[in-house]
Design a protein that fits this description.
This protein is of the alpha/beta class. The protein has five helices and four strands, in the order E-H-E-H-E-H-E-H-H. Keywords: Arsenical resistance, Oxidoreductase.
């Protein structure tokens, strides 16, 4: 079975995109390999996002905040899909992606901006995780070799 590379983009690559990478890489269908990056990456991964990724089975040592320029290089893995998960990154001029992958915006509020108790913060991260999981589950059930940008964007409205 073919595995499809999915790049999740967010501004700082510290929370939403990290969760997307972990969900795709550990998806039970085995159809995805997740990657993540940001337009202006931070210096670290949010600890709650790292905890969620580890709970999903992702190796914490693989989680790094990195620039999206890494994936525009000639020797970078070829992406089949590029998905922005924050409104800021969706509005930015993205680099050229080799292979012209299908693209979509699946926006979620930034869980790292939630103020409150630890439980309220964790709930915000879980909301992002559950939303991304629903979309990946829908995607996994589709014929991925024929999935284009328009169909990929429609997944956002179905979930």
């Amino acid at each position: 079975m073919k595995s499809y590379n999915i790049l999740f983009l967010c501004t700082h690559n510290s929370a939403r995109s990290i969760i997307g990478e972990a969900l795709a890489s550990t998806h039970p269908s085995g159809k995805f390999k997740g990657f993540s990056a940001g337009s202006t990456p931070g210096t670290s991964v949010n600890p709650i996002a790292a905890d969620i990724a580890a709970e999903l089975g992702m190796d914490r040592t693989l989680l790094k905040s990195k620039s999206w320029d890494v994936y525009g290089q000639p020797d970078a893995p070829k992406m089949d899909f590029v998905i922005t998960v924050c409104d800021n990154a969706a509005g930015e001029q993205c680099p050229f992606w080799p292979g012209q992958p299908a693209t979509a915006h699946w926006g979620f509020p930034d869980p790292s901006q939630v103020q409150g108790t630890d439980l309220e913060k964790r709930r915000a991260f879980n909301d992002v995780m559950n939303g991304l999981k629903r979309r990946l589950d829908i995607m996994a059930a589709m014929s991925l070799d024929k999935l284009d940008s328009m169909s990929l964007k429609e997944i956002h409205t179905k979930a």
